[in-house]
Amino acid sequence: MGQVGYAGGMKVIRVHNISKSFGKLCAVNDLSFEVEEGTCFGLLGPNGAGKTTMMKMVYGRSSRDNHDGGVIDVLGYDPARDELAIKYLSGVVPQENNLDDELNVIQNLMIYSKFYGLPGKVARERIEVLLGFLELSEKIESPIKELSGGMQRRLVIARALLNNPKLLILDEPTTGLDPQVRHLIWDKLRQLRAQGTTILLTTHYMEEAFQICDTVLIMDKGRKILEDSPQRLLRENIEAYVLEVPMTNGMRGWGESDLPSVVRLDRTDATLRLYAQDIDQLKAVADRLSGGQYYLRQTTLEDVFLKATGRALNEKQ
Amino acid sequence: MKSSSPVAYPSLAQRLFSVWYRHVRVYTKNLISNGLPPFLEPLLFLLGVGLGLGKYITQSMEGLSYLEFLGTGLLVTAAMFTSAYECTFGTFIRLEFEKVYDGMLAAPITVNDLIVGEIIWAGTKGLFFTFAVLCVLTAFRIIHLPAGLLAPLVGFVTGVMFATLSLWVTSFVKTINHFNFYLTGIISPMFFFSGVVFPISNLPPSVRFIAEIVPLTHCVRLARAVCIGQYPPSLLASLGYAVVFIALTGWLAIRRLRRRLVR
Protein backbone atom coordinates (compact mmCIF):
# COMPACT_ATOMS: atom_id res chain seq x y z
CA MET A 1 0.00 0.00 0.00
CA GLY A 2 2.45 2.68 1.13
CA GLN A 3 3.84 4.18 -2.01
CA VAL A 4 7.18 5.86 -2.14
CA GLY A 5 7.46 7.86 -5.28
CA TYR A 6 10.18 7.48 -7.82
CA ALA A 7 12.51 10.22 -9.01
CA GLY A 8 11.53 13.69 -7.90
CA GLY A 9 10.05 13.04 -4.48
CA MET A 10 7.11 11.42 -2.80
CA LYS A 11 3.75 11.23 -4.46
CA VAL A 12 1.03 12.48 -2.15
CA ILE A 13 -1.74 11.66 -4.61
CA ARG A 14 -1.70 8.94 -7.24
CA VAL A 15 -4.71 8.65 -9.51
CA HIS A 16 -4.57 5.95 -12.17
CA ASN A 17 -7.24 5.25 -14.76
CA ILE A 18 -10.13 6.59 -12.74
CA SER A 19 -13.62 7.00 -14.17
CA LYS A 20 -16.88 8.17 -12.68
CA SER A 21 -20.31 7.99 -14.27
CA PHE A 22 -23.62 9.41 -13.14
CA GLY A 23 -26.09 7.28 -15.08
CA LYS A 24 -25.21 7.85 -18.71
CA LEU A 25 -23.07 10.91 -18.04
CA CYS A 26 -19.39 10.16 -17.78
CA ALA A 27 -18.12 12.92 -15.47
CA VAL A 28 -14.55 11.65 -15.23
CA ASN A 29 -13.16 9.53 -18.01
CA ASP A 30 -10.07 7.39 -17.46
CA LEU A 31 -8.12 10.12 -15.69
CA SER A 32 -4.59 9.66 -14.36
CA PHE A 33 -2.27 12.07 -12.57
CA GLU A 34 0.19 12.25 -9.70
CA VAL A 35 0.85 15.03 -7.24
CA GLU A 36 4.27 15.38 -5.73
CA GLU A 37 4.80 16.31 -2.11
CA GLY A 38 5.09 20.04 -1.46
CA THR A 39 3.77 21.10 -4.85
CA CYS A 40 0.58 22.77 -5.97
CA PHE A 41 -1.45 20.86 -8.53
CA GLY A 42 -4.33 22.50 -10.38
CA LEU A 43 -7.28 20.85 -12.09
CA LEU A 44 -8.32 23.36 -14.69
CA GLY A 45 -11.39 23.16 -16.86
CA PRO A 46 -14.75 24.68 -17.73
CA ASN A 47 -17.79 24.07 -15.53
CA GLY A 48 -18.92 20.50 -15.98
CA ALA A 49 -15.45 19.26 -16.88
CA GLY A 50 -15.39 16.89 -13.89
CA LYS A 51 -12.95 18.82 -11.69
CA THR A 52 -15.05 18.79 -8.53
CA THR A 53 -16.06 15.17 -9.03
CA MET A 54 -12.40 14.18 -9.34
CA MET A 55 -11.55 16.18 -6.26
CA LYS A 56 -14.35 14.61 -4.22
CA MET A 57 -13.13 11.15 -5.15
CA VAL A 58 -9.75 12.03 -3.65
CA TYR A 59 -11.21 12.51 -0.16
CA GLY A 60 -13.91 9.87 -0.36
CA ARG A 61 -16.89 12.14 -0.78
CA SER A 62 -17.63 10.62 -4.15
CA SER A 63 -17.19 6.98 -5.08
CA ARG A 64 -15.32 6.01 -8.23
CA ASP A 65 -16.65 3.54 -10.78
CA ASN A 66 -15.60 0.03 -9.92
CA HIS A 67 -13.41 -1.50 -12.54
CA ASP A 68 -10.09 -3.25 -12.61
CA GLY A 69 -7.00 -1.11 -12.75
CA GLY A 70 -8.46 2.05 -11.26
CA VAL A 71 -6.32 3.29 -8.37
CA ILE A 72 -6.55 6.25 -6.05
CA ASP A 73 -3.85 6.50 -3.42
CA VAL A 74 -3.76 9.50 -1.11
CA LEU A 75 -0.95 9.66 1.46
CA GLY A 76 -0.78 5.89 1.24
CA TYR A 77 -4.52 5.35 1.75
CA ASP A 78 -7.38 4.39 -0.52
CA PRO A 79 -10.32 6.78 -0.05
CA ALA A 80 -12.78 3.94 -0.69
CA ARG A 81 -11.53 2.18 2.46
CA ASP A 82 -9.70 4.71 4.60
CA GLU A 83 -11.58 7.97 4.12
CA LEU A 84 -11.15 8.85 7.80
CA ALA A 85 -7.37 8.63 7.67
CA ILE A 86 -7.27 10.75 4.51
CA LYS A 87 -9.65 13.34 5.89
CA TYR A 88 -7.74 13.49 9.16
CA LEU A 89 -4.51 14.25 7.31
CA SER A 90 -6.10 16.64 4.81
CA GLY A 91 -7.96 19.92 4.88
CA VAL A 92 -10.82 20.52 2.47
CA VAL A 93 -12.21 23.85 1.29
CA PRO A 94 -15.51 23.07 -0.47
CA GLN A 95 -16.84 25.16 -3.31
CA GLU A 96 -19.46 26.88 -1.16
CA ASN A 97 -18.75 28.53 2.17
CA ASN A 98 -20.77 26.45 4.60
CA LEU A 99 -20.22 28.20 7.89
CA ASP A 100 -22.79 28.12 10.68
CA ASP A 101 -24.44 31.53 10.34
CA GLU A 102 -25.88 31.37 13.85
CA LEU A 103 -22.42 31.26 15.39
CA ASN A 104 -19.45 33.59 15.40
CA VAL A 105 -15.94 33.03 14.03
CA ILE A 106 -14.34 31.36 17.05
CA GLN A 107 -17.40 29.19 17.73
CA ASN A 108 -17.38 27.94 14.15
CA LEU A 109 -13.74 26.94 14.46
CA MET A 110 -14.08 25.45 17.94
CA ILE A 111 -16.95 23.22 16.81
CA TYR A 112 -14.95 22.11 13.81
CA SER A 113 -11.87 21.39 15.94
CA LYS A 114 -13.97 18.81 17.80
CA PHE A 115 -14.26 16.85 14.56
CA TYR A 116 -10.49 16.36 14.69
CA GLY A 117 -10.54 15.55 18.39
CA LEU A 118 -8.36 18.56 19.24
CA PRO A 119 -8.34 19.36 22.96
CA GLY A 120 -9.88 22.76 23.74
CA LYS A 121 -6.65 24.48 24.72
CA VAL A 122 -4.72 23.21 21.70
CA ALA A 123 -7.63 24.22 19.45
CA ARG A 124 -7.75 27.73 20.87
CA GLU A 125 -4.04 28.31 20.33
CA ARG A 126 -4.20 26.90 16.85
CA ILE A 127 -7.19 29.09 16.00
CA GLU A 128 -5.39 32.22 17.12
CA VAL A 129 -2.41 31.37 14.93
CA LEU A 130 -4.62 30.60 11.93
CA LEU A 131 -6.73 33.74 12.27
CA GLY A 132 -3.51 35.72 12.41
CA PHE A 133 -2.19 33.92 9.35
CA LEU A 134 -5.33 34.68 7.36
CA GLU A 135 -5.56 38.23 8.71
CA LEU A 136 -8.82 37.68 10.55
CA SER A 137 -7.63 38.18 14.14
CA GLU A 138 -9.86 41.19 14.69
CA LYS A 139 -12.92 39.23 13.61
CA ILE A 140 -12.58 36.49 16.21
CA GLU A 141 -15.87 37.39 17.92
CA SER A 142 -17.73 38.56 14.80
CA PRO A 143 -20.94 36.82 13.72
CA ILE A 144 -20.58 35.11 10.34
CA LYS A 145 -23.26 37.34 8.83
CA GLU A 146 -21.06 40.39 9.36
CA LEU A 147 -18.16 38.95 7.38
CA SER A 148 -17.62 39.84 3.73
CA GLY A 149 -17.42 37.11 1.12
CA GLY A 150 -13.64 37.32 1.14
CA MET A 151 -13.47 37.00 4.94
CA GLN A 152 -15.80 34.02 4.90
CA ARG A 153 -13.63 32.36 2.30
CA ARG A 154 -10.51 32.93 4.38
CA LEU A 155 -12.31 31.57 7.42
CA VAL A 156 -13.20 28.38 5.54
CA ILE A 157 -9.52 28.08 4.60
CA ALA A 158 -8.56 28.58 8.26
CA ARG A 159 -11.05 25.85 9.16
CA ALA A 160 -9.42 23.49 6.68
CA LEU A 161 -6.02 24.19 8.26
CA LEU A 162 -7.10 23.37 11.84
CA ASN A 163 -5.40 19.99 11.93
CA ASN A 164 -2.15 21.04 10.21
CA PRO A 165 -2.97 19.14 7.03
CA LYS A 166 -0.31 17.52 4.89
CA LEU A 167 -2.64 17.94 1.93
CA LEU A 168 -4.88 20.94 1.32
CA ILE A 169 -7.72 20.46 -1.16
CA LEU A 170 -9.49 23.57 -2.46
CA ASP A 171 -12.47 23.68 -4.80
CA GLU A 172 -12.42 27.01 -6.64
CA PRO A 173 -10.77 28.90 -3.78
CA THR A 174 -11.17 32.41 -5.18
CA THR A 175 -14.27 32.30 -7.36
CA GLY A 176 -16.27 35.49 -6.96
CA LEU A 177 -13.66 37.34 -4.87
CA ASP A 178 -12.14 40.74 -5.55
CA PRO A 179 -8.51 41.06 -6.72
CA GLN A 180 -7.12 42.09 -3.32
CA VAL A 181 -8.53 39.06 -1.56
CA ARG A 182 -7.59 36.80 -4.43
CA HIS A 183 -3.97 37.90 -4.26
CA LEU A 184 -3.94 37.56 -0.47
CA ILE A 185 -5.21 33.97 -0.76
CA TRP A 186 -2.63 33.18 -3.42
CA ASP A 187 0.11 34.52 -1.15
CA LYS A 188 -1.11 32.36 1.71
CA LEU A 189 -1.24 29.27 -0.47
CA ARG A 190 2.31 29.94 -1.65
CA GLN A 191 3.44 30.23 1.97
CA LEU A 192 1.75 26.96 2.86
CA ARG A 193 3.40 25.24 -0.06
CA ALA A 194 6.78 26.65 1.01
CA GLN A 195 6.18 25.07 4.42
CA GLY A 196 5.73 21.71 2.71
CA THR A 197 1.95 21.48 2.38
CA THR A 198 0.82 19.76 -0.78
CA ILE A 199 -2.03 21.57 -2.53
CA LEU A 200 -4.68 20.26 -4.90
CA LEU A 201 -7.05 22.85 -6.28
CA THR A 202 -9.65 23.24 -8.96
CA THR A 203 -10.13 26.47 -10.79
CA HIS A 204 -11.37 27.96 -14.00
CA TYR A 205 -9.20 31.03 -13.60
CA MET A 206 -6.16 30.72 -15.83
CA GLU A 207 -4.48 33.48 -13.90
CA GLU A 208 -4.86 31.50 -10.69
CA ALA A 209 -3.41 28.38 -12.24
CA PHE A 210 -0.52 30.36 -13.68
CA GLN A 211 0.19 32.17 -10.42
CA ILE A 212 0.28 29.32 -7.94
CA CYS A 213 0.31 25.93 -9.63
CA ASP A 214 3.47 23.94 -10.27
CA THR A 215 1.52 21.60 -12.50
CA VAL A 216 -1.73 22.17 -14.31
CA LEU A 217 -4.01 19.51 -15.70
CA ILE A 218 -6.46 20.90 -18.23
CA MET A 219 -9.54 18.73 -18.43
CA ASP A 220 -12.66 18.86 -20.54
CA LYS A 221 -15.67 16.53 -20.58
CA GLY A 222 -14.00 14.34 -17.97
CA ARG A 223 -10.82 13.76 -19.95
CA LYS A 224 -7.30 14.99 -19.61
CA ILE A 225 -6.42 17.38 -22.44
CA LEU A 226 -3.01 18.64 -21.34
CA GLU A 227 -0.80 18.34 -18.28
CA ASP A 228 2.39 20.26 -17.60
CA SER A 229 3.85 23.23 -15.78
CA PRO A 230 2.03 26.44 -16.71
CA GLN A 231 5.16 27.87 -18.34
CA ARG A 232 5.69 24.80 -20.51
CA LEU A 233 2.02 24.62 -21.40
CA LEU A 234 2.32 28.14 -22.73
CA ARG A 235 5.60 27.58 -24.51
CA GLU A 236 4.69 24.33 -26.17
CA ASN A 237 1.03 24.68 -26.96
CA ILE A 238 0.54 28.16 -28.25
CA GLU A 239 2.32 30.90 -30.14
CA ALA A 240 3.94 33.60 -28.06
CA TYR A 241 1.80 36.52 -29.29
CA VAL A 242 -1.72 37.20 -30.37
CA LEU A 243 -3.23 40.09 -32.29
CA GLU A 244 -6.89 40.57 -31.54
CA VAL A 245 -8.90 42.56 -34.04
CA PRO A 246 -12.59 43.37 -33.64
CA MET A 247 -14.55 42.24 -36.71
CA THR A 248 -15.41 45.22 -38.84
CA ASN A 249 -16.73 45.13 -42.37
CA GLY A 250 -13.31 45.52 -43.89
CA MET A 251 -11.96 42.56 -41.98
CA ARG A 252 -14.58 40.00 -42.85
CA GLY A 253 -13.03 39.15 -46.12
CA TRP A 254 -9.66 38.27 -44.61
CA GLY A 255 -8.61 34.70 -44.99
CA GLU A 256 -5.50 32.56 -44.62
CA SER A 257 -4.23 33.64 -48.02
CA ASP A 258 -3.97 37.29 -46.99
CA LEU A 259 -1.62 36.47 -44.12
CA PRO A 260 1.98 35.33 -43.74
CA SER A 261 2.11 31.56 -43.43
CA VAL A 262 3.51 31.72 -39.91
CA VAL A 263 0.38 33.43 -38.63
CA ARG A 264 -2.47 31.23 -37.38
CA LEU A 265 -6.00 32.54 -37.70
CA ASP A 266 -8.83 32.00 -35.21
CA ARG A 267 -12.13 33.57 -36.15
CA THR A 268 -15.22 34.14 -34.02
CA ASP A 269 -18.25 36.26 -34.89
CA ALA A 270 -16.95 39.33 -33.12
CA THR A 271 -13.18 38.95 -33.10
CA LEU A 272 -10.38 37.84 -35.33
CA ARG A 273 -7.36 36.44 -33.49
CA LEU A 274 -4.02 36.09 -35.18
CA TYR A 275 -1.36 34.03 -33.42
CA ALA A 276 2.34 34.08 -34.19
CA GLN A 277 5.65 33.25 -32.53
CA ASP A 278 7.23 36.41 -33.89
CA ILE A 279 5.78 39.72 -32.72
CA ASP A 280 7.09 41.53 -35.84
CA GLN A 281 4.90 39.41 -38.09
CA LEU A 282 1.85 40.56 -36.15
CA LYS A 283 3.02 44.16 -36.11
CA ALA A 284 3.23 44.03 -39.89
CA VAL A 285 -0.32 42.77 -40.06
CA ALA A 286 -1.43 45.44 -37.59
CA ASP A 287 0.07 48.14 -39.82
CA ARG A 288 -2.15 46.99 -42.67
CA LEU A 289 -5.23 47.70 -40.52
CA SER A 290 -4.71 51.39 -41.28
CA GLY A 291 -5.50 52.79 -37.88
CA GLY A 292 -8.34 50.44 -37.00
CA GLN A 293 -8.71 49.07 -33.49
CA TYR A 294 -6.52 46.18 -32.45
CA TYR A 295 -4.87 44.68 -29.38
CA LEU A 296 -1.48 43.05 -29.58
CA ARG A 297 -0.43 41.05 -26.52
CA GLN A 298 1.43 38.04 -25.19
CA THR A 299 -0.59 34.87 -25.12
CA THR A 300 -1.77 33.55 -21.74
CA LEU A 301 -2.89 30.24 -20.38
CA GLU A 302 -6.39 31.31 -21.30
CA ASP A 303 -5.46 31.13 -24.99
CA VAL A 304 -4.08 27.62 -24.45
CA PHE A 305 -7.21 26.68 -22.62
CA LEU A 306 -9.55 27.97 -25.30
CA LYS A 307 -7.48 26.34 -27.98
CA ALA A 308 -7.55 23.04 -26.11
CA THR A 309 -11.19 22.99 -25.05
CA GLY A 310 -12.76 24.98 -27.86
CA ARG A 311 -14.90 28.10 -27.69
CA ALA A 312 -18.28 26.41 -27.84
CA LEU A 313 -20.23 26.30 -24.57
CA ASN A 314 -21.25 22.98 -23.09
CA GLU A 315 -24.67 22.38 -21.50
CA LYS A 316 -23.37 23.21 -17.99
CA GLN A 317 -21.99 26.62 -18.92
CA MET B 1 3.71 7.98 3.33
CA LYS B 2 3.44 4.55 4.86
CA SER B 3 -0.05 3.43 5.69
CA SER B 4 1.37 0.97 8.18
CA SER B 5 1.59 3.76 10.75
CA PRO B 6 -2.00 4.12 11.94
CA VAL B 7 -3.55 7.56 11.80
CA ALA B 8 -4.91 8.71 15.15
CA TYR B 9 -8.25 9.98 13.87
CA PRO B 10 -10.98 10.32 16.52
CA SER B 11 -12.81 7.20 17.72
CA LEU B 12 -16.41 6.45 16.78
CA ALA B 13 -17.68 7.78 20.12
CA GLN B 14 -15.72 11.01 19.68
CA ARG B 15 -17.01 11.43 16.14
CA LEU B 16 -20.63 10.90 17.16
CA PHE B 17 -20.14 13.26 20.06
CA SER B 18 -18.69 15.97 17.84
CA VAL B 19 -21.68 15.81 15.47
CA TRP B 20 -24.05 15.93 18.43
CA TYR B 21 -22.07 18.78 19.97
CA ARG B 22 -22.34 20.81 16.78
CA HIS B 23 -26.13 20.57 16.88
CA VAL B 24 -26.26 21.38 20.60
CA ARG B 25 -24.14 24.50 20.12
CA VAL B 26 -26.22 25.79 17.22
CA TYR B 27 -29.49 25.04 19.04
CA THR B 28 -28.46 26.62 22.33
CA LYS B 29 -27.20 29.73 20.54
CA ASN B 30 -30.78 31.04 20.58
CA LEU B 31 -31.64 29.68 23.99
CA ILE B 32 -34.73 31.79 24.64
CA SER B 33 -36.42 31.41 21.27
CA ASN B 34 -35.53 27.71 21.12
CA GLY B 35 -35.86 26.81 24.78
CA LEU B 36 -39.04 28.59 25.89
CA PRO B 37 -41.69 27.22 23.50
CA PRO B 38 -41.29 23.62 24.73
CA PHE B 39 -42.57 24.85 28.10
CA LEU B 40 -45.25 27.18 26.73
CA GLU B 41 -46.85 24.73 24.34
CA PRO B 42 -47.91 22.08 26.86
CA LEU B 43 -48.99 24.89 29.16
CA LEU B 44 -51.33 26.31 26.53
CA PHE B 45 -52.61 22.87 25.65
CA LEU B 46 -53.35 21.95 29.24
CA LEU B 47 -55.06 25.27 29.86
CA GLY B 48 -57.12 25.25 26.71
CA VAL B 49 -58.01 21.63 26.22
CA GLY B 50 -57.24 20.01 29.54
CA LEU B 51 -58.80 22.48 31.92
CA GLY B 52 -61.26 24.11 29.52
CA LEU B 53 -62.64 21.11 27.70
CA GLY B 54 -61.64 18.60 30.37
CA LYS B 55 -64.11 20.11 32.81
CA TYR B 56 -66.88 18.42 30.85
CA ILE B 57 -65.12 15.04 30.82
CA THR B 58 -65.83 13.27 34.04
CA GLN B 59 -65.43 9.71 32.81
CA SER B 60 -62.08 8.15 33.64
CA MET B 61 -59.94 6.93 30.77
CA GLU B 62 -57.95 3.75 31.31
CA GLY B 63 -58.28 4.42 34.99
CA LEU B 64 -56.92 7.98 34.77
CA SER B 65 -58.54 11.36 35.10
CA TYR B 66 -58.73 13.19 31.79
CA LEU B 67 -55.92 15.58 32.72
CA GLU B 68 -53.70 12.65 33.70
CA PHE B 69 -54.60 10.80 30.55
CA LEU B 70 -53.98 13.74 28.24
CA GLY B 71 -50.93 15.00 30.12
CA THR B 72 -49.08 11.69 30.00
CA GLY B 73 -49.79 11.50 26.27
CA LEU B 74 -48.46 15.00 25.68
CA LEU B 75 -45.14 13.91 27.18
CA VAL B 76 -44.33 11.96 24.05
CA THR B 77 -46.20 13.94 21.39
CA ALA B 78 -43.89 16.87 22.18
CA ALA B 79 -40.91 14.58 21.53
CA MET B 80 -42.52 13.28 18.34
CA PHE B 81 -43.15 16.71 16.86
CA THR B 82 -39.76 18.18 17.62
CA SER B 83 -37.94 15.14 16.27
CA ALA B 84 -40.09 14.94 13.15
CA TYR B 85 -39.50 18.62 12.36
CA GLU B 86 -35.79 18.42 13.13
CA CYS B 87 -35.23 15.47 10.82
CA THR B 88 -37.38 16.75 7.96
CA PHE B 89 -37.07 20.51 7.58
CA GLY B 90 -33.93 20.78 9.71
CA THR B 91 -32.08 18.00 7.94
CA PHE B 92 -33.23 19.07 4.51
CA ILE B 93 -32.07 22.67 5.06
CA ARG B 94 -28.66 21.46 6.28
CA LEU B 95 -28.48 19.12 3.32
CA GLU B 96 -29.65 21.34 0.47
CA PHE B 97 -29.59 25.01 1.45
CA GLU B 98 -26.93 25.60 4.06
CA LYS B 99 -24.65 22.82 2.78
CA VAL B 100 -23.65 22.18 6.39
CA TYR B 101 -23.04 18.52 5.64
CA ASP B 102 -20.53 19.40 2.91
CA GLY B 103 -18.44 21.11 5.55
CA MET B 104 -18.84 18.34 8.13
CA LEU B 105 -18.04 15.58 5.65
CA ALA B 106 -14.79 17.35 4.76
CA ALA B 107 -13.68 16.64 8.34
CA PRO B 108 -12.90 13.10 9.51
CA ILE B 109 -16.58 12.18 9.82
CA THR B 110 -18.23 9.43 7.78
CA VAL B 111 -21.75 9.67 6.39
CA ASN B 112 -22.85 7.04 8.92
CA ASP B 113 -21.37 9.09 11.79
CA LEU B 114 -23.21 12.12 10.50
CA ILE B 115 -26.60 10.39 10.28
CA VAL B 116 -26.30 8.53 13.58
CA GLY B 117 -25.18 11.77 15.26
CA GLU B 118 -28.24 13.44 13.80
CA ILE B 119 -30.47 10.68 15.23
CA ILE B 120 -28.90 10.96 18.69
CA TRP B 121 -29.39 14.72 18.55
CA ALA B 122 -33.08 14.32 17.66
CA GLY B 123 -33.39 11.89 20.59
CA THR B 124 -31.82 14.53 22.84
CA LYS B 125 -34.35 17.08 21.68
CA GLY B 126 -37.09 14.56 22.39
CA LEU B 127 -35.68 14.11 25.88
CA PHE B 128 -35.61 17.85 26.47
CA PHE B 129 -39.14 18.45 25.15
CA THR B 130 -40.54 15.63 27.26
CA PHE B 131 -38.72 17.05 30.26
CA ALA B 132 -40.37 20.42 29.61
CA VAL B 133 -43.83 18.81 29.56
CA LEU B 134 -42.92 16.92 32.71
CA CYS B 135 -42.10 20.21 34.43
CA VAL B 136 -45.46 21.66 33.47
CA LEU B 137 -47.36 18.55 34.54
CA THR B 138 -45.56 18.52 37.86
CA ALA B 139 -46.25 22.22 38.42
CA PHE B 140 -49.96 21.57 37.80
CA ARG B 141 -49.81 18.59 40.18
CA ILE B 142 -50.99 16.28 37.44
CA ILE B 143 -47.95 14.09 37.99
CA HIS B 144 -46.38 13.69 41.40
CA LEU B 145 -42.66 13.19 41.55
CA PRO B 146 -40.76 10.93 41.60
CA ALA B 147 -43.23 9.20 39.25
CA GLY B 148 -42.47 10.26 35.74
CA LEU B 149 -38.77 10.88 36.24
CA LEU B 150 -38.17 8.16 33.67
CA ALA B 151 -40.43 9.92 31.18
CA PRO B 152 -37.59 11.93 29.55
CA LEU B 153 -35.97 8.60 28.70
CA VAL B 154 -39.14 7.58 26.91
CA GLY B 155 -38.94 11.01 25.25
CA PHE B 156 -35.45 10.11 24.04
CA VAL B 157 -36.65 6.81 22.59
CA THR B 158 -39.58 8.59 20.94
CA GLY B 159 -37.24 11.20 19.50
CA VAL B 160 -35.01 8.50 18.07
CA MET B 161 -37.97 6.61 16.56
CA PHE B 162 -39.29 9.65 14.78
CA ALA B 163 -35.80 10.69 13.75
CA THR B 164 -35.11 7.45 11.90
CA LEU B 165 -38.57 7.49 10.31
CA SER B 166 -38.29 11.16 9.31
CA LEU B 167 -34.77 10.80 7.92
CA TRP B 168 -35.97 7.93 5.78
CA VAL B 169 -38.79 10.14 4.50
CA THR B 170 -36.32 12.98 3.93
CA SER B 171 -34.16 10.73 1.79
CA PHE B 172 -36.97 10.69 -0.81
CA VAL B 173 -37.81 14.39 -0.74
CA LYS B 174 -36.61 16.64 -3.54
CA THR B 175 -38.64 19.76 -2.70
CA ILE B 176 -39.08 21.06 0.82
CA ASN B 177 -42.86 21.49 0.39
CA HIS B 178 -43.28 17.73 0.11
CA PHE B 179 -42.79 17.45 3.86
CA ASN B 180 -46.32 18.78 4.29
CA PHE B 181 -47.67 15.45 3.07
CA TYR B 182 -45.73 13.62 5.73
CA LEU B 183 -46.34 16.03 8.58
CA THR B 184 -50.03 16.63 7.90
CA GLY B 185 -50.78 13.20 6.50
CA ILE B 186 -48.90 10.98 8.94
CA ILE B 187 -47.58 12.82 11.97
CA SER B 188 -50.66 14.91 12.82
CA PRO B 189 -53.14 12.00 12.51
CA MET B 190 -50.95 10.04 14.91
CA PHE B 191 -51.49 12.75 17.47
CA PHE B 192 -55.23 12.21 17.38
CA PHE B 193 -55.50 8.46 16.88
CA SER B 194 -52.74 6.95 19.02
CA GLY B 195 -54.37 7.10 22.40
CA VAL B 196 -53.26 10.60 23.36
CA VAL B 197 -56.57 12.49 23.39
CA PHE B 198 -58.84 9.45 23.77
CA PRO B 199 -58.25 5.71 24.36
CA ILE B 200 -57.79 3.68 21.21
CA SER B 201 -60.28 1.17 22.61
CA ASN B 202 -62.90 3.72 21.53
CA LEU B 203 -61.86 3.39 17.90
CA PRO B 204 -64.06 1.24 15.65
CA PRO B 205 -62.56 -2.31 15.55
CA SER B 206 -62.08 -2.02 11.78
CA VAL B 207 -59.48 0.76 12.14
CA ARG B 208 -58.13 -0.07 15.55
CA PHE B 209 -55.37 -2.24 14.14
CA ILE B 210 -53.92 0.86 12.46
CA ALA B 211 -53.44 2.47 15.85
CA GLU B 212 -51.59 -0.65 16.95
CA ILE B 213 -49.24 -0.42 13.97
CA VAL B 214 -48.19 3.23 14.24
CA PRO B 215 -45.23 4.05 16.49
CA LEU B 216 -46.73 6.78 18.65
CA THR B 217 -49.22 4.40 20.30
CA HIS B 218 -46.33 2.44 21.77
CA CYS B 219 -44.51 5.56 22.92
CA VAL B 220 -47.68 6.68 24.72
CA ARG B 221 -47.99 3.33 26.47
CA LEU B 222 -44.39 3.49 27.65
CA ALA B 223 -44.83 7.06 28.89
CA ARG B 224 -48.02 6.26 30.84
CA ALA B 225 -46.45 3.18 32.34
CA VAL B 226 -43.50 5.08 33.78
CA CYS B 227 -45.77 7.88 35.03
CA ILE B 228 -48.15 5.64 36.95
CA GLY B 229 -45.51 3.09 37.79
CA GLN B 230 -47.39 0.11 36.42
CA TYR B 231 -45.54 -2.23 34.12
CA PRO B 232 -47.83 -4.90 32.68
CA PRO B 233 -46.08 -7.69 30.70
CA SER B 234 -47.74 -6.38 27.52
CA LEU B 235 -45.44 -3.38 27.81
CA LEU B 236 -42.61 -5.58 26.57
CA ALA B 237 -44.37 -5.66 23.22
CA SER B 238 -44.18 -1.85 23.01
CA LEU B 239 -40.53 -1.90 24.01
CA GLY B 240 -39.78 -4.57 21.44
CA TYR B 241 -41.69 -2.57 18.85
CA ALA B 242 -39.52 0.47 19.57
CA VAL B 243 -36.31 -1.51 19.18
CA VAL B 244 -37.33 -3.17 15.92
CA PHE B 245 -38.77 0.07 14.54
CA ILE B 246 -35.55 2.01 15.24
CA ALA B 247 -33.37 -0.72 13.75
CA LEU B 248 -35.47 -1.05 10.60
CA THR B 249 -36.17 2.60 9.77
CA GLY B 250 -32.66 3.55 10.89
CA TRP B 251 -31.16 1.06 8.48
CA LEU B 252 -33.39 2.30 5.65
CA ALA B 253 -32.61 5.94 6.40
CA ILE B 254 -28.84 5.43 6.47
CA ARG B 255 -28.89 3.34 3.32
CA ARG B 256 -30.83 5.89 1.33
CA LEU B 257 -29.27 9.08 2.70
CA ARG B 258 -25.84 7.59 2.11
CA ARG B 259 -26.61 7.36 -1.58
CA ARG B 260 -27.63 10.98 -1.52
CA LEU B 261 -24.52 12.20 0.28
CA VAL B 262 -21.85 10.06 -1.37
CA ARG B 263 -22.51 10.02 -5.07
Notes on the protein architecture:
The complex is a heterodimer of chains A (317) and B (263). Chain A is α/β, with parallel strands linked by helices and 317 residues long. Chain A is 33% helix and 25% strand. In chain A, the strands form 3 sheets. In chain A, strands 5-6-7-3-8-9 form a 6-stranded mixed sheet, sandwiched between helices. Chain A has a 4-stranded antiparallel sheet with strand order 11-12-10-13, with helices on one face. Chain A has a 3-stranded antiparallel sheet with strand order 2-1-4, with helices on one face. Chain B has 263 residues and is an all-alpha fold. Chain B has one domain. Chains A and B meet through strand 1, helix 2, strand 5, helix 3 and helix 5 of A and helix 1 and helix 5 of B.
Number of domains of chain A: 2
Give me the strand/helix succession of chain B.
HHHHHHHHHHH
CATH topology of the largest domain in chain A: Rossmann fold
Low-confidence region ranges of chain A: 1-7
Instruction: Kindly give the count of domains of chain B.
Output: 1
Name the helicity range of chain B. over 70%
Strand content of chain A: 25-35%
Which residues of chain B form runs of ≥5 with pLDDT under 50?
Answer: none
Topology of chain A as a string of helices (H) and strands (E): EEEHEHEHHHEHEHEEHEHEEHEH
| Major beta sheet, strand line-up of chain A | 5-6-7-3-8-9
Determine the oligomeric state from the structure: heterodimer
Count of helical stretches of chain A: 11
How large is the count of helical segments of chain B?
A: 11
Class of the largest domain in chain A, according to the CATH hierarchy? Alpha Beta
Largest interface (CB within 8 Å) is between: A-B, 45 and 33 residues
User: Gyration radius of chain B, to the nearest Å?
Assistant: 20 Å
Mean pLDDT of chain B: 92
Q: Measure the end-to-end span of chain A.
A: 39 Å
Q: Which outline of chain B best applies?
A: globular
**Whole-Å distance between the termini of chain B?**
28 Å
Number of strands of chain B: 0
